[in-house]
Amino acid sequence: MLKVEHLTKMFGGLAAVNDVSVEFETGKINAIIGPNGAGKSTFFNLISGLHQPTSGHILLDGVDVTNMPCDKVARLGVGRTFQTTNLFEQASVLDNLIVGHRLRTESGLWDVLINSKRLQREEKAARDKAMEALDFVGLTHVAGQFIADITQEERKRVAFALALTTDPKIVLLDEPAAGVNPEETEGFAALMRKMVDNGLTVCLIEHKMDMIMSLADKIMVLDHGEKIAEGTPEEVRNNPVVIEAYLGG
Ligand code: ADP
Ligand code: MG
């Protein structure tokens, strides 16, 4: 499904991602772990087309998506969340999702001026898609509330829903459960299992080790931009190189 070959991203003299090759399987939960600054978010930025790699290739279902702009990558089925999501505080949860969708539709200014059939069709599609995403993440009951009035945990779920409005095949989740309590964390784990049960491929950056260890099918460990290990949770947990990276400092 997602194959990355010798991916490198330089920021000046710093290799934020350094010659990483990895394959993520369809319908699995793939995790990326590593200390702060290891290059995890940059790795996501490369896959989603937000940053262009310095070298290397990214293949999605055999299609070379390297250097494609992020909107095109999104249309090919890559959805994502960000470590921090900017939402419109004084707009409803539903409107936040519709805006996210509208930015990606085909209608031009002309359609807006004449309120064309196409625009009306797209508006309805955006609304339906947003409601579907809200239902999936369990937020139907706050659809009409302002972002400013919902809880931290609900905001995180809105970020999930945003990633789902693009009809992704693979979702990249950047620390989706950061800052939520253990009980809520379990809720997010359940949500990710549900995504996989619905045929999605999940790619997850997370610091919560117990969550990763019980949830992930496969783990890649990054350190200073390099892949230092990969395998099942069991393999990674017992890997001396990983233990050194985390405890060696
Ligand atoms: P992680 O998500 O694993 O904590 P990041 O991918 O955010 O790590 O960052 C990896 C390294 O790349 C860090 O040293 C960070 O400072 C650097 N970096 C990330 N984004 C940029 C950028 N846009 N410009 C310059 N340096 C960056
Ligand atoms: Mg990060």
Model description:
This is High-affinity branched-chain amino acid ABC transporter ATP-binding protein LivG. It holds the Pfam family BCA_ABC_TP_C. It comes from Marinobacter salinus. Keywords: ATP-binding, Nucleotide-binding, Transport. GO terms for molecular function: ATP binding; ATP hydrolysis activity; L-isoleucine transmembrane transporter activity; L-phenylalanine transmembrane transporter activity; L-valine transmembrane transporter activity. By secondary structure, the chain is an alpha/beta fold. It is 40% helix and 24% strand. It has ten helices and ten strands. A six-stranded mixed beta sheet has the order 6-7-8-3-9-10, with helices on both faces. Helix 7 links the parallel strand 7 and strand 8. Helix 3 (93-102) crosses helix 5 (117-137) and helix 5 (117-137) crosses helix 6. The longest helix has 21 residues, at 117-137. The protein is globular, with a radius of gyration of 19 Å. The protein starts with a strand and ends with a helix. The relative contact order is 0.19. The site of adenosine-5'-diphosphate (ADP) has 11 residues, from strand 2 and helix 1.
